[in-house]
Structures are given as C-alpha cells and as structure tokens.
Specification:
The protein is an alpha/beta fold and about 260 residues long. About 30% of the residues lie in helices and about 20% in strands. The protein starts with 6 loop residues before the first strand and ends with a helix.
C-alpha cells in the first residue's frame, strides 16, 4: 500500500514432514527447505530458540541461505518467561543475546516473548521485566513483542507499560487466547491460529480476504473492525506488519500464508 508499512507474512519454522510434497516439491533435499521457503514467504518465526540456545554459526547460516530482504522473528527462550519472578530474568535474557542472535544482522525481526497461559498480569513485576529488554545492541535497534495468554492482561495499565517500553503485543487471531488488538508500537505482530483441515489452503477465501484486508489496514495505520480492543483508538500511523499463520491445521499453514501474500501485494 502506498505510504504504508511493510507487510511480511509467514509461518512458524520450516522443517515439518507434512509440508513435504504439499508445500515443498517432492524429493527436495531437506537442507534446501529454508532456501525454498524463504523465496516464497517473506518471514518465518523461529521456534527452536524458545526451547534452547543456537550457535552463532547457525544464525549466520540462516542469514546466508535467505534472500536479502527476508526477515526472521525469534521466539525468545522460555527460561526467561516461564518463571515466577520476571524481574529475575536478566541473566537468561543476557545469555540469549550473547548466543549469536545478532549474526542475523539486518534479517533480525521482532523477538517474541511468549508467556504461559497461567501467567497473570503483575504490573510491578512486568514493568521490571520490560525494563530488562535491551532497546539496541551494538547500535542495532531491537524490536520486542510480548505474548501474554491470560485475561488479566486485558487492561489499559498493560497497554501503557507496553507503550512506555516500545513493545508490541501479539495479536492472537482465531484462537482461545485473549485478544489484544491495540497497537502499542511501530509494528503489528499477528499470530493467526485458526487454519482448518477442511480448507485446502487452511482458510476459506472469505477468511483469507478478511485477514489480508486487516493486514492492509494495519499497514496504513488503521484499526480493523471485528477485533477485540482494550483502550481508545490510537492516532493513525503507518506500521510494519508481521503476520504468521501458526498452529491450527499446521499442514496447510504455508498454503494459507502464500494466499495471503498474493492478496496483499
């Protein structure tokens, strides 16, 4: 869209057996799957970083195998977010950024800090956690997004904290998790989780049209109808959009992402 932010659409990970022969061509070597996926999608959310550390050479390899304008988002380590006192996560956060993350260089997109569904909003502790997230490393600006999964986060106080620390809030689409669609920073991060086995491309044409239109509205700085908001409508401001088709009927997610890319070009 003219004057709007960049829209990037993708999936979670790239190595999944049911995608072979459906998204990936038959007999495509597994070592070429990232190369193939990154030339058809515009972003991928890496899940492996949630479960354990990766090596600097791994991040460098991922950077080298993908097009120059491709962007990875990363799920931050669970060791930082799955804890009683978030204010004590500093060492885990430091280890994550020392693991080689910055080897992605200009291909490093938002970092998603996902919380368990049982984690409730504690304003003091959550503010302490957000204060631990670095805004930049070696002069490279970082983008953070938080993914709370408990209803207690649906409060203007949480929105104010996210805006204070320039953090996005994951917009959970078609899921049982609480939806907070309010923009809080310069980008939108949507995780759309309702793909179905009954639909060849995961979603019906009408639903694909709906999500594509929402991405365009976000890009232009608007607030789409039909979503759950907590606070007042913010001023119109063009925003980059990161939309990932995640969970649901995972086998069809790449096809849904491709259909959304077609609709938002």
């Amino acid at each position: 869209m003219s004057g709007g932010g960049k829209i990037r659409i993708g999936i979670g990970g790239w190595s999944y057996e049911p995608w072979r022969g459906m998204f990936y061509p038959d007999k495509l070597p597994q070592k070429l799957e990232l190369d193939y996926a990154s030339r058809r999608l515009t972003s991928i959310e890496i899940n492996a970083t949630y479960y354990g550390s990766q090596k600097p050479e791994t991040f460098a390899k991922w950077r080298a195998e993908t097009p120059d304008d491709f962007v990875f988002s990363l799920k931050a380590p669970r060791f930082a977010t799955n804890r009683r006192a978030l204010a004590e996560a500093g060492a885990s956060i430091d280890r994550f950024f020392a693991s080689g993350v910055m080897e992605l260089r200009h291909k490093l997109g938002p970092i998603n800090w996902q919380f368990m569904a049982t984690k409730k909003f504690d304003p003091t502790d959550f503010e302490a956690f957000l204060a631990l997230l670095p805004q930049s490393i070696d002069g490279v600006a970082l983008r953070h997004v938080v993914e709370p999964r408990h209803d207690s986060f649906r409060t203007p106080e949480f929105l104010a904290l996210a805006r204070k620390f320039r953090a996005g809030i994951v917009m959970a689409g078609d899921s049982n998790y609480p939806q907070i669609a309010d923009p809080t920073t310069s980008f939108i991060y949507a995780r759309v989780m309702g793909s179905r086995e009954s639909e060849e491309r995961g979603y019906s044409d009408a639903d694909l049209d709906k999500w594509a239109e929402r991405a365009k509205i976000w890009s232009a700085g608007g607030t789409p109808e039909g979503l759950a908001y907590v606070g007042a409508t913010p001023p119109v401001e063009p925003r980059d959009v990161f939309l990932y088709v995640i969970s649901g009927h995972k086998a069809h997610n790449p096809l849904a992402a491709l259909a959304l890319i077609e609709r938002t070009r």
